[in-house]
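Our collaborator T.R. sent over the components below with a one-line note: 'Predict the complex.' Nothing else. No constraints on interfaces, no templates requested, no preferences about which chain binds where. So this is a plain run: every listed entity goes in together, and whatever single assembly comes back becomes the starting point for the next discussion.
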Amino acid sequence: MTTYLVTGGAGFIGSNFIHFMFGKYGDDIRIINLDALTYAGNPENLKSVEGRSNYTFIHGDITDRESVSEIFKDNDIDIVVHFAAESHVDRSIKNPEIFVRTNVLGTAVMLNCAKEAWENEDGSFKAGKKFLHVSTDEVYGSLPDDPDAYFYETTPYQPHSPYSASKASSDMLVKAYMDTYGFPANITNCSNNYGPYQFPEKLIPLMIHNALQGKDLPVYGDGLNVRDWLYVEDHAKAIDLVINEGRLFETYNVGGHNEKKNIDIIHIILDTLREELPIDDPRRNNVTENLITYVTDRKGHDRRYAIAPDKIHKDLGWLPDTKFENGIRTTIKWYLEHEDWVENVTSGEYLKYYSSMYDNR
Ligand code: NAD
Ligand code: DAU
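Returned assembly:
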């Protein structure tokens, strides 16, 4: 039985990945989820898997070397899927240090503990072990508005935000481990994910949540920045494929070929909300274009991201399964049906964050 150590499994992509893996492999795998439960980690995301005998949750911090080392000593870990990170660009602009601590130091600790556990005396590594480092397309910087310009695996790194700089540093550490020790790893660099369980500080869930409440929809700058949106389950499928079939030491870009301007995303959300809300639901009155409010641009705001997923397509046969028009409808329906979840995660700390970000802009 393969044992996975998933870090950050209580977050957005991590929890979707765990649901996908149990859905696909059932009792044939074991998953240990190591998560510090920061504001972004929510055990509620995993309520339905909690009772499984092949699932263990460990409340812990990836920067805590002793605890991580214990996990490797107590369990014969085959695969590490490393999601845990501080993930929000705006927060990194306000408070970069925590991004360095979690994303850089945390990755170094994970790499070192895995290396110690998996290395043979002669410096080779035990068979069947792999470290899958989940990273982002933001490490490549920003693309011009040229339809032929894409991010490839060979595109030089040019991160701009403290978040992307910290992720670039973590990627470099993984590359250094592969080059120096022959450490068995892959890196995936993925574009913007959307779907259920995404914390409502990110564009899509924030706009859904605010529109339902009749609150302003804050558009940074001119609203024409472009992101390449991928349904989160397609990302989970790509990670599973790279774990099982990706060639060791390779990097794979993962993206949806689904570029959209931010302002267009907002119009799609408003239209879809109006279609999905029952005719007698009082929140329908809130959902209007009048909420769209242009605010001061994000500092260092990258203009355009677009992934060329040619390598993962040609080498491993991966293509996204979910069309954007279906994925966004599923996502909006999920948020409409899980108002209690949104309520829980948007109380307390979130309210303080929201007013520090958006009030008086
Ligand atoms: P998220 O913020 O929703 O979740 C992060 C998780 O990590 C949370 O559960 C949090 O509690 C946990 N965590 C944070 N610090 C920790 C620590 N010190 N120790 C243990 N756990 C800790 O993030 P996400 O959007 O799910 O992103 C997951 C990963 O995927 C990140 O590495 C991110 O860089 C990468 N990624 C995200 C996207 C995206 O669009 N969201 C796209 C490409 C890559
Ligand atoms: O590209 C992958 C990255 O996508 C991941 O590595 C990050 O973890 C993830 O957060 C995401 O980063 P972005 O900065 O692209 O996502 P965000 O949802 O914060 O913003 C998407 C776009 O929307 C961006 O151009 C900024 C804009 N925006 C965002 C917010 C929160 C607004 O106009 N208004 C807003 O209130």
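Summary for T.R.: Residues 26 and 315 are 27 Å apart (CA to CA).
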